[in-house]
Design a protein that fits this description.
The chain is an alpha+beta fold. The protein has 2 domains: 166 residues, no CATH class; 185 residues, no CATH class. It contains 11 helices and 11 strands. β7 and β8 form a beta hairpin.
Length: 358
């Protein structure tokens, strides 16, 4: 049985179908993330998110057209992932290397797919030598290409039909000053653009939960603090967030940071954010049911709109004052999700916005 499989077209079709499935999954991720995270700023920002899906689609088409070339490319990519996920370091003067299971989960299937394509390349050569001819019907001759192209196209159309009406109708009044937001159950003042909102750091990103929480700890500032960091496994606590967070140092107008804490502004809680979520100027009626609930209960789906968000900037997540445990802290997404990540983590899409009572 196995001999038959490796001498007919079975191995090739297994490889192609698996590649098509993987490509479809990456296309879904790429397109969904383009609309979710990448819909801001210059248009090329959106196109960057399509690179993974397009790359896998190109790899699939190459594997269908030239199985030998595609097979070796996939094996090389799998090997690159293997090396990437190896923890190669020098400890106590000795070279050390540890294997990350994530690398195997990525590289293992890719190497297998590459090997199956190489088997198909060999079998294709044998079939051609034996006088095999492509099927006379166009759709049968190009069935592999159709199966590779139709799912990504359907995914793109389906997601665009859902997301485009949302992203194209976002409300942005252009105001980036202090905003009074009458939310569901509470009315709060939100900080203007500056050190209390979307404060980009010198390295080009936005501060982590750790940096925000430990701002007032000597040496005062957003830099690293001695004795803290993921390398040594120590992170700021909820108590330190309450005592040292950057919002405490904001001046009354929210435009400058003072040398001493002013205790006017504070870091928002998840519920503070939930109360201010809105869409098209209408409060979304969101409420968070507490730890263990990743999605807020909302009357309408909130969106990345003013007055709470800046639709033209990267951040789609805001850090909250609460911690999940010693290592993880909560952050909210503009669409009403509540998640957690490393306190020292964050990326260009993680920001914060200070708040105070009116």
């Amino acid at each position: 049985m196995f001999k038959k499989i490796f001498n007919d077209r079975t191995a090739g079709w297994i490889a192609k179908l698996l590649l098509i499935a993987i490509t479809s999954a990456w296309c879904y991720w790429s397109i969904a993330e383009m609309y979710h995270e990448g819909w801001w700023g210059p248009f090329y920002i959106r196109l960057v998110y399509l690179i993974p899906g397009v790359a896998f689609l190109a790899l699939t088409l190459i594997g269908i057209r030239w199985p030998r070339l595609g097979g070796w490319l996939i094996i090389l990519i799998g090997g690159a992932f293997t090396i990437f996920f190896m923890d190669i370091h020098i400890a106590d003067g000795k070279f050390s290397m540890e294997r990350d299971l994530t690398g195997f989960l990525v590289s293992g299937p890719l190497v297998l797919l590459g090997a199956l394509l190489l088997v198909e390349a060999r079998n294709h050569k044998r079939r051609a030598a034996a006088g095999w001819q492509p099927h006379p019907k166009w759709w049968r001759r190009n069935l592999g290409y159709l199966l590779a192209l139709v799912p990504p196209l359907a995914i793109f159309i389906g997601l665009s039909v859902f997301y485009l009406p949302i992203v194209l109708t976002r409300v942005d009044d252009g105001q980036r000053g202090t905003r009074l937001i009458e939310g569901s159950g509470k009315t709060l003042l939100w900080a203007p653009e500056g050190p209390g909102w979307n404060w980009r750091q010198d390295y080009g990103g936005y501060p982590s939960w750790n940096m925000i929480a430990l701002y007032g700890l000597e040496p005062v500032g957003m830099g690293d603090k001695p004795g803290y960091g993921w390398e040594i496994g120590r992170f700021s606590s909820a108590e330190e967030m309450a005592q040292y967070n950057v919002c405490l140092y904001l001046s009354e107008d929210g435009l400058t940071l003072e040398d001493e804490p002013q205790y006017i502004w504070r870091m928002p809680t998840v519920e503070d954010y939930a109360s201010a979520f809105a869409r098209h100027g209408v409060n979304a009626g969101c409420a968070w049911q507490g730890p263990g609930n990743q999605q807020m209960d909302c009357t309408i789906l909130p969106d990345k709109e003013t007055p709470l968000w800046a639709p033209d900037l990267e951040p789609i997540y805001y850090w909250a004052a609460e911690e999940y445990d010693d290592r993880l802290a909560y952050f909210v997404s503009y669409n009403g999700w509540v998640n957690r990540t490393l306190k020292s983590g964050g990326n260009p899409r993680h920001s914060y916005r200070c708040v105070r009572e009116p």
